[in-house]
Amino acid sequence: MAIKPCLVLLLPLAALLLLAGSSLAAAQLEVGYYSKSCPNAEAIVRDEMEKIISAAPSLAGPLLRLHFHDCFVRGCDASVLLNSTGSIMAERDAKPNNSLRGFGSVDRVKTKLEAACPNTVSCADVLAIMARDAVVLAKGPSWPVPLGRRDGTVSSATEAADNLPPAFGDIPLLTKIFASNGLDLKDLVVLSGAHTLGTAHCPSYAGRLYNFSGAYSSDPTLDSEYADRLRTRCKSADDTAMLSEMDPGSYKTFDTSYYRHVAKRRGLFQSDAALLTDATTMEYVQRIATGKFDNVFFKDFSESMVKMGNVGVLTGAEGEIRKKCYIVN
């Protein structure tokens, strides 16, 4: 499948230099990074994750989402986990992150790692491993996670609001955001497949159901029967309590049914619907939606997750290894 090659050429020089630095840092990550300093690190994470997901299978999506939301702001440095302090509002309190869950699970895993290997495993690496394990435990693919990230010391709600891909994003906007992180159009359509896991609050999609535009009361790109069904759950744009499954009927299982919903114009977000407005992303959606290429999607998702996990990482003497993920040392 032809992927548009010119995206990175449109980036400003400063962004290109940032990406070059990110690639250099990513090259310092390695599979088995803790083989000597904390050889059981990944086993400890997996053991806790098995307990967490067994008790609450619906947490697989939120724990995967934490890694996504971390990497798109300042790179994969666990800045999304830091608490706000004084007058400084942190990423986790930004409006796009109001529905994030799983912070307690991260703290639980980090506590186990600190007991076994004090001051060794970064919170950024914990997020990357937990995201992989969340997918595996939801019956999705596994992949080797390159490790060696360090934790950032800065977290900004403003940066989160400015840099996270929005649920209302169209292809030009989403492409720009992904390209600024060294991710291309294929990564966009593949990583959108993470919406096979989890739920969303009404305000994130209500704009498609009510007062969509002057010409339409609801989004015409949304299947009308599906829209009617959503309105029975989401009574108004102000309903913050009601949740809808992002992949109806399969939101706890990592599979390709998300693409079948999107192909039928039943993607929950405008960003999902946008995948049908570009020839390249539409082709991928329709191919995976056939159900004949699950292994292709699993392989693509694994590769794109490794690529995303390399965005803007701190390594070597940069940053720190936080003792507690919600506060700097």
Automatic annotation (TrEMBL):
Q: What is its main location?
A: secreted
Q: Which GO terms describe its biological process?
A: hydrogen peroxide catabolic process; response to oxidative stress
Q: Identify the residue position(s) of the site Transition state stabilizer.
A: 65
Q: Which cofactor does it need?
A: heme b; Ca(2+)
Q: What is this protein called?
A: Peroxidase
Entry binding sites for Ca(2+) 1: 70, 73, 75, 77, 79, 91
Q: Name one Pfam family in it.
A: peroxidase
Q: Where is the active site?
A: 69 (proton acceptor)
Supply the alphabetized keyword list.
Answer: Calcium, Disulfide bond, Glycoprotein, Heme, Hydrogen peroxide, Iron, Metal-binding, Oxidoreductase, Peroxidase, Secreted, Signal
Q: What are the Plant heme peroxidase family profile domain coordinates in residue numbering?
A: 28-329
Localization annotation: Secreted
Name the cystine pairs.
38-117, 71-76, 123-325, 202-234
| UniProt: substrate binding residues | 165
Which catalysed reactions does the entry list for this protein? 2 a phenolic donor + H2O2 = 2 a phenolic radical donor + 2 H2O
Cofactor binding note from Swiss-Prot or TrEMBL: Binds 1 heme b (iron(II)-protoporphyrin IX) group per subunit.
Check the record and name the PROSITE patterns matching this protein.
PEROXIDASE_1 (PS00435), PEROXIDASE_2 (PS00436), PEROXIDASE_4 (PS50873)
| Role played | Removal of H(2)O(2), oxidation of toxic reductants, biosynthesis and degradation of lignin, suberization, auxin catabolism, response to environmental stresses such as wounding, pathogen attack and oxidative stress. These functions might be dependent on each isozyme/isoform in each plant tissue.
Q: Name one GO molecular function term.
A: metal ion binding
